[in-house]
Amino acid sequence: MDILYQKGRASAAEIQEAIADAPGYSAIRALLRILVEKGHVRHEAEGAKYVYLPTGSIEKAKRTAVRHMIDTFFNGNVEAAVAAMIDGKSKRISTAELDRLSKLIADAKAARK
């Protein structure tokens, strides 16, 4: 899916080329078939090959992935997930990012009133 979101569209061969230590072509095709069946990907005929495209936006995919991570690793607790990301010892998040997060939280609180 990462490759399809990056490229916008790609054939099975192009996807295989983009993956380091990629599985075989048949495995790529099988995975694409499953993604099509689940509705995550669609395909279009382009000459003798299929070209695959994601069906949803990357923003929706991000939200779904984050929700799944929170449900899986934090039992659905958003506060615990955010706390894990912004612990005071971490240098991974800048002061500017913390300020933007504070504003997002304030905006969310104001929207509930």
Q: What does the radius of gyration come to?
A: 19 Å
> Main β-sheet, in a few words?
3 strands, antiparallel
Strand portion, in percent?
Answer: 5-15%
Q: Point out poorly predicted stretches.
A: none
Q: What's the number of helices? A: 6
- In round numbers, the mean pLDDT is 93
**How far is it from the N-terminal to the C-terminal residue, by CA?**
38 Å
Give the helix level as a range of percent.
55-70%
Strand order of the largest sheet: 1-3-2
Shape: elongated
Quick one: how many beta strands?
3
What is the H/E string?
A: HEHHEEHHH
Q: Structural class of the helices, strands and pairings?
A: alpha+beta
Walk me through the structure.
With about 110 residues, the protein is α+β, with helices and mostly antiparallel strands. It has two domains: about 1-55, Arc Repressor Mutant, subunit A; about 60-110, no CATH class. About 60% of the residues lie in helices and about 10% in strands. The protein is built from six helices and three strands. The protein has a three-stranded antiparallel beta sheet. A hairpin with a 2-residue loop joins strand 2 (about 40-45) and strand 3. The longest helix has 18 residues, at about 95-110. It is elongated.
Summary?
The chain is built from 6 helices and 3 strands, in the order H-E-H-H-E-E-H-H-H. It is α+β, with helices and mostly antiparallel strands and 113 residues long.
Task: Provide the fold topology.
Elements: H1 2-7, E1 10-11, H2 12-18, H3 25-37, E2 41-46, E3 49-54, H4 58-74, H5 78-85, H6 95-112
Antiparallel strand pairs: 1-3, 2-3
